[in-house]
Amino acid sequence: MELEYILPNEIEKRSFEIISSELEKNIPDDIRPVVMRVIHTTADFDYAENLYFSENVIDKAVSTLKKGCVIVTDTNMALSGINKTALNTLGCKAFCFMADKDVAETAKEKGLTRAAVSVDKAAGIDKPVIFAAGNAPTALIRLNEHIKSGDFIPELVIGCPVGFVNVIQSKEMIIQSGIPCIVARGRKGGSNVAAAVCNSLMYMITRK
After folding, report:
1. Whether 146 is catalytic
2. pLDDT tens, 21-69?
3. Fewer CB atoms inside 10 Å of the end CB: C or N, the chain?
4. Catalytic residue among 32, 40, 60, 93
5. Domain-by-domain residue ranges, the chain?
6. How far is CA 139 from CA 49, 120, 131, 159, 206, in A?
C-alpha cells in the first residue's frame, strides 16, 4: 500500500473525498455537511445511520447562530473543540460550566451531578442557547425536565453523550420532547462529536 502525497492544506479536502467515495447511504443535502464532518472526526461510518435530525433543524440552527447565540457544552473537551474563529465571526460565545465553583457547590448540596446543575445555570442565560452534550446523559435528562416545565427551552439541543447508563434513554427523551435537536442515537457519541456538530453548523455560514 503506497502513501499518498498530500499537501497539508489539502488533507481535509482529500479526507472528505474519501468519505464521499465510501459512503454507501444517500444523505440529504441539508444534513450532509453535519454527517460528513462527524464521520471525518470519528472515522465511523455508523453515524450515517445513527444521527437523528428533527424537522427543519438545520434552518433553525443556522438562524440561531446568526443571532449571536451562546453555545453551552457539558465538557471542556467539547468547548475546546469548537472552532473559535467561526464562533467569533458569528458573534457567538461558548461556555462550559462544569468546573465552576458555584456549580460544584450546588451539585454537592443538592446531590445532583455537575452536568445537571450546569443545565440549571445555562437556564439563566438571557440570549438564545444551543446546548451541546457530548458526555453526560444527566444533562439531557435535566434539559428534558426544564423543557417539560417550560422554564428553559434551548433553541437547539445537540445530544451526543457516550456510554452505557441512561445514554440511550436520555437521547430518546430529547427526541420525543419535540425540541429542535440533532442526536447521536444509541451508545455512541462523545465530546468530539458534539464539537463536530457545532462546527459543521457554523461552517455552513462562515465557509460559503
Report:
1. no
2. 999 889 999 999 999 999 999 999 999 999 999 999 999 999 999 999 9
3. N
4. 40
5. 25-206
6. 24, 9, 9, 9, 29
